[in-house]
Amino acid sequence: MMQMLAAGGLPVLTDDARAADADNPRGYHEFEPVKKTRQDRTWLGRAAGKAVKMVHLLVHDLPRDRSYQLILMRRNLTEVVRSQNLMLRRLGRRGADLTPTQLIEAYRRQLAELTDWLEEQADFTYVTVDFNDLLREPEPIIRRLNRFLGGRLNEGAMRRVIDPTLYRQRSDGRDDSSA
């Protein structure tokens, strides 16, 4: 999504502190200060008018003194857990002491709570994008995103960034990392 937004002409706030690797060959497009938003919000001054990648659990830490447009990416949670587990294994790190089923249920609960919370927030507008739908039929989603973000993005450039070969952890159990 961050690559699409950047290609479309929306400035992105990233520091490239986390380099591209086998799990994300095009990079992570993160901004490290986001992870410490609860303790230090000074980075928000640099974020106005820009796309910033943020884990769903950190959205609650954003201050209420401004308005936000949020793109909530949804993905098959089995795929998310499989991808995370493979990445952790490659890094030689352990994940949570939860079974995949428990982790999926925790994510489901967190996302439902976030969606309910967002509905009650006057300072947030949001749109949900399904990862698989975006790969399958990107044009209507790109049009909807462009409208949501003010209608100034280059939709063709956004479409050209999508690379289905990077979709490797599929819910059908295939690992297409060789693709």
List the keywords:
179 residues, two-stranded parallel sheet, 7 helices, globular
Offer a quick outline of the entry:
By secondary structure, this protein is mainly alpha-helical. It is built from 7 helices and 2 strands, in the order H-H-E-H-H-E-H-H-H.
Flag low-confidence runs: 173-179
Label the overall shape: globular
Distance between the termini: 20 Å
Number of DSSP strand runs = 2
Rg for CA atoms: 17 Å
Name the average pLDDT. 85
Class from secondary-structure proportions: mainly alpha
In DSSP terms, counting alpha (H) and pi (I) runs of 4 or more, how many helices?
7
Cross-sheet strand order for the largest sheet: 1-2
Topology pattern, helix = H, strand = E: HHEHHEHHH
Biggest sheet features: 2 strands, parallel
Percentage of residues in helical conformation:
25-40%
Strand residue content: 5-15%
How would you describe the overall organization of this protein?
- The structure is a single chain.
- This protein has 179 residues and is mostly helical.
- It has a domain at 2-75 and 123-166.
- The chain contains seven helices and two strands; from the N terminus they run H-H-E-H-H-E-H-H-H.
- A two-stranded parallel ribbon has the order 1-2.
- Helix 1 runs antiparallel to helix 7.
- The two termini are 20 Å apart.
Topology:
Layout lengths: L1 H7 L35 H4 L20 E7 L2 H15 L8 H20 L4 E7 H6 L1 H11 L6 H7 L18
Parallel strand pairs: 1-2
Helix pairs in contact: 1-7, 3-4
